[in-house]
Amino acid sequence: MSRSCCSAHRCSSISCPGCAWRYSRHIAREILAYEPRHLFAMTIERSAPGPGDFGQWRKAIHNAASYQRRRYRRWRGVGIWGWHTGADIRGLVALDPIGATEFTLAFRRHGEVHLRLIRDEDVRVEVYRAVQSIPATWADHRSGRYQSLKIAIVPMTTAKSSTPTIPAQVIEPLPMILF
Ligand SMILES: [Zn+2]
Question: What DSSP string describes 81-108?
């Protein structure tokens, strides 16, 4: 982590493991507040790699999700949280009540979708993995700014609680970056 990162002053840099771990706690709480069921780790690989604009890609995915929500009520419970890591988008999806196949088909025009079922207690680690996949070379000019690299399509249900308990064992696998 950065030399300037300490408890009194967080650097908030994308390349700082400590700050990424703190950020992942914040996001995990946000996701778990929706009490999601059928959580998956998600990767969307761009089908045609190139210097494409993430902003346009993100907009296309937003539009595809909005379209599904207008057509099918069940899509309103779907949530997508992802980060642009260069060639792909990595993150998590909450699919209840739709299936993985339905999700994959809905986004097939926007890339190759890979899903892996995870448990609630894995959410923070999966968020951490996703944001740590953002190239470190992007960190300098994007310090503290995940927003330009993030896609978030939240479920159209009310978040139940702003502070669900993150199980203690989630913290254990990465003790070296806790302080
Ligand atoms: Zn830091």
Answer: EEEE-SSEEEEEEE-TTS-HHHHHHHTG
97 CB neighbour count, 10 Å cutoff: 13
Q: How far is the CA of 177 from the centre of ligand 1 (A)?
A: 10
- CA of residue 132 to ligand 1 center, whole Å: 13
Q: How far is the CA of 74 from the centre of ligand 1 (A)?
A: 39
Domains located in the chain, CATH noted:
17-156 (3.30.70.1910)
Residue pointed to by tokens 């967080």: 10
112-117, strands of its sheet edge to edge: 112-117, 39-45, 88-94, 79-84, 150-153
Give the pLDDT score at 141.
55
Distance from Cα 179 to the centre of ligand 1, integer Å: 11
Helix, strand, coil in percent for the chain, rounding step 5: 45, 20, 40
pLDDT at 135: 87
How many angstroms does the Cα of residue 77 sit away from the middle of ligand 1?
Answer: 34
Residue 125 neighbours by CB distance under 10 Å: 18
CA distance 101 to 75: 13
Segment 97-151, tens digit of pLDDT: 899 999 999 999 999 999 999 999 999 999 999 999 998 877 655 555 688 899 9
